[in-house]
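Subject: Predicted fold for t-SNARE coiled-coil homology domain-containing protein, 262 residues

User T.R. writes:
Posting the sequence so we have a shared reference for the thread.
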Amino acid sequence: DDDAFNRLASDIARQVDSIKSNANQIKSLALSIGTERDSSDRRQQLHSLTHTTRALCQAAADQLRDGLAPMCVGLAGGARRAQKDRLLDKLAKAAGDFQEAQRLVQSREREQVGQQKRAASGVEAAFNSDAQPPPPSGAEDNSNPFTLENAQMQATADLQDDLQAAEERESQLRQLEQDIVGINEMFKDLAQMVHEQGDMVDSIEDHVGQAVMQVDEGNKNLKQAVTYQKSARRKKIIIALVVIVALAILAVIIYFAVPKPN
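User M.O. replies:
I've generated the structure tokens; pasting them so everyone works from the same file.
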């Protein structure tokens, strides 16, 4: 049992360390959103990392609740409960760091999605108002109808690409928000675990308190029994002395009452 407990506790500790490391990496990647370092590959890496870290958090919480906690039942599991509580505290802090990183990603992504949508809407409004889109850079003849047509086609393709990129980022943002909701639910599970742990400790303290009271009451009863026993012994001794004195008096009376032969 001790080996199984230690193996599971070590596994949870490694997961907690991975969560902390991933949270720091997520924060670093989040700061690149909207900068020159921003790219589709980095965003994919970012969202894949957040999804993986969320799964790590949930797995560690499940192992704490379903695997480690049942091994800490009873008065003999005090040392195990202390180790489990330390792991629970570390997991809560690591999950808090991860949630903070998630919210940073959410804020940066939401800002970028808004900018892309506004830019795409501006280009689309220009088309709807029959305004001539600017030709691509490097165009030589603005009066050539073929050049203008190519410019319109290029602008339309760019608009579609921008809209598609905005939709992809919005989809990733929705997934991120779902992950944040999942972490919030996990925090509720952790809070419930802490509450149940507190109830269990209170129950143990109540049982210990009752045992102490029963021991005190037993000591009082024992002392009272000893007192009764001493009192009974004293009464027996007194009665015995009274009987002996009475027999002695009776013997003296008989001795003097019986006539002596001449």
